[in-house]
């Protein structure tokens, strides 16, 4: 039986989410928004909910607008309990305007 070498298998089934980076203004920290659909228990209307997580990005690899995968980890600071696993899809970069 071949053993797969994925991040989830190596880390004992920790929670992983996919989300969009909404802020990259901090050094080694990103704010990632994870959206999900929830059905109201009585009215059964489907609503979109969003949670924002502070994510540790050691190499500053992600930027605003990128689709990323995050994984739960031990507490790294007061608000950071997630770390960046990989950048799934990079957002198009806009060249800085020269003044």
According to CATH, what is the topology? OB fold (Dihydrolipoamide Acetyltransferase, E2P)
Helix content range: under 10%
Which CATH-level-2 architecture?
A: Beta Barrel
Number of domains: 1
How far the N terminus sits from the C terminus, by CA atoms, comes to: 61 Å
Order of helices and strands: HEEEEE
Mean pLDDT: 89
Major β-sheet, in short?
5 strands, mixed, barrel
Strand content: over 45%
Q: Number of DSSP strands? A: 5
Radius of gyration: 16 Å
Q: What spatial order of strands do you see in the largest sheet?
A: 1-2-3-5-4
CATH classification, class level = Mainly Beta
Helices and strands: which structural class?
Answer: mainly beta
CATH superfamily placement: Nucleic acid-binding proteins
- Low-pLDDT regions: none
Work out the helix count. 1
Broad shape: globular
Overview of this protein structure:
The chain has 99 residues and is mainly beta. The protein has a single domain (10-89), classed as OB fold (Dihydrolipoamide Acetyltransferase, E2P). It contains one helix and five strands; from the N terminus they run αβββββ. It has one helix at 7-10, and strands at residues 16-26, 29-39, 46-56, 67-72, 80-89. It has a five-stranded mixed barrel with strand order 1-2-3-5-4. A hairpin with a 7-residue loop joins strand 4 (67-72) and strand 5. The longest helix is centred in the N-terminal third of the chain and has 4 residues, at 7-10. The N and C termini lie far apart (61 Å). The model has no long low-confidence stretch (mean pLDDT 89).
């Amino acid at each position: 039986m071949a053993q797969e070498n994925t991040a989830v298998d190596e880390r004992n089934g920790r929670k992983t989410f996919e989300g969009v980076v909404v802020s990259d203004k901090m050094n080694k920290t990103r704010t990632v928004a994870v959206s999900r659909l929830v059905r109201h228990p009585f009215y059964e209307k489907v609503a979109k909910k969003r949670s924002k997580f502070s994510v540790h990005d050691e190499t500053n690899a992600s930027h605003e607008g990128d689709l990323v995968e995050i994984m739960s980890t031990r507490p790294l600071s007061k608000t950071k309990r997630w770390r960046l696993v990989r950048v799934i899809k990079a957002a198009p970069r806009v060249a800085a305007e020269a003044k």
